[in-house]
């Protein structure tokens, strides 16, 4: 298959290299198109008030076509589809440095790049790895991603995004792989520091809570990798029907 690999951590990120290498070693024709700098938390923002710069890059130890883009993760997908003379059969986004679980998918550049691929009729998988200050097991995430891909690639309806989160541990130590729904909202708390007439605010901590059984956050705590199909249709059919009756 012709596979596009992107991310939000930048073309130089070890998670992207692990994922692209695993796909290449599995016999796929891989093209990397990723941001030239860190773009975490950019969600689905795009660049349209200035030109994007797309440059060929070399990723050490990876023998694939690779490019950096002076824009967001969604820009990377748009650039790949529009300027490369290649039809992509699938898109992988990741492996991200940190989970994209629960409603964090709304903020995630990793997930948004996968959604952008869908807008071009390309099925996509977003892959994220648990953040740890010590060794990150991106190899485990890449292995899980390929395992899931091989099981579902011929059964996915066009067009669809699948979100995968993987604990950072050796593959053999995983509790397993489970389908899961999103695990809800975690509240962020900030510290405000007076600065002139305004404030500087810094993210201090996130709430810890008990997660609903069967959700991605619940299963991740128990050492499972999670697989969540995402829907991004913003229509509300029931409310639309009531509004039509009342307007």
Task: Please provide a written account of the structure.
This protein has helices spanning 14-25, 73-83, 109-119, 138-152, 216-221, 237-246; strands at 2-6, 29-35, 54-56, 65-69, 90-97, 124-129, 161-166, 176-179, 188-195, 198-206, 224-230. With 247 residues, the chain is of the alpha/beta class. The protein has a single domain (2-184, 211-246), classed as Survival protein SurE-like phosphatase/nucleotidase (Stationary-phase Survival Protein Sure Homolog, Chain: A). Helix 1 (14-25) packs across helix 4 and helix 2 (73-83) runs parallel beside helix 3. The longest helix has 15 residues, at 138-152. Its EC number is 3.1.3.5. Pfam families: SurE.
Short synopsis of the structure:
This protein is α/β, with parallel strands linked by helices and 247 residues long.
User: Which percent bin holds the helix content?
Assistant: 25-40%
Give start-end ranges of low-pLDDT stretches. none
CATH architecture: 3-Layer(aba) Sandwich
Oligomer: single chain
- Count up the domains: 1
CATH C-level label: Alpha Beta
How large, in whole angstroms, is the Cα Rg? 19 Å
SS elements, strand count: 11
Global outline: globular
Rounded average pLDDT:
93
Sheet bearing the most strands, described? 9 strands, mixed
Structural class: alpha/beta
- CATH topology annotation: Stationary-phase Survival Protein Sure Homolog, Chain: A
Write the H/E string, N to C. Answer: EHEEEHEHEHEEEEHEH
Q: Can you tell me the CATH superfamily?
A: Survival protein SurE-like phosphatase/nucleotidase
Question: Hey, roughly how much beta strand do the residues contain?
Answer: 25-35%
InterPro entries: SurE, SurE-like_Pase/nucleotidase, SurE-like_sf
Organism: Peptoniphilus equinus
GO molecular function: 3'-nucleotidase activity; 5'-nucleotidase activity
Catalytic activity: a ribonucleoside 5'-phosphate + H2O = a ribonucleoside + phosphate
């Amino acid at each position: 298959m012709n596979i596009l690999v992107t991310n939000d951590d930048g073309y130089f990120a070890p998670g992207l290299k692990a994922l692209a290498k695993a796909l290449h070693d599995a016999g796929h024709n891989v093209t990397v198109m990723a941001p030239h700098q860190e773009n975490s938390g950019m969600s689905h923002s795009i660049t349209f008030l200035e030109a994007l710069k797309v440059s060929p890059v070399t990723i050490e130890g990876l023998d694939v076509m690779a490019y950096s883009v002076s824009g967001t993760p969604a820009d990377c997908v748009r650039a790949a589809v529009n300027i490369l003379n290649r039809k992509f059969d699938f898109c992988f986004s990741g492996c991200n440095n940190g989970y994209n679980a629960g409603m964090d998918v709304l903020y995630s550049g990793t997930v948004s790049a996968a959604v952008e691929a869908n807008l071009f009729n390309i099925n996509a998988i977003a892959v994220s790895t648990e953040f740890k200050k010590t060794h990150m097991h991106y190899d485990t995430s890449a292995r899980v991603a390929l395992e899931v891909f091989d099981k579902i690639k011929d059964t996915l309806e066009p067009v669809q995004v699948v979100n995968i989160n993987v604990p950072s541990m050796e593959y053999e130590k995983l509790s397993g792989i489970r389908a899961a729904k999103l695990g809800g909202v975690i509240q962020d708390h900030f510290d405000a520091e007076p600065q002139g007439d305004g404030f500087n605010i810094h993210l201090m901590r996130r709430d810890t809570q008990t997660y609903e059984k069967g959700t991605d956050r619940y299963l991740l705590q128990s050492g499972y990798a999670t697989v969540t199909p995402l829907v991004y249709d913003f229509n509300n059919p029931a409310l639309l029907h009531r509004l039509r009756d009342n307007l």
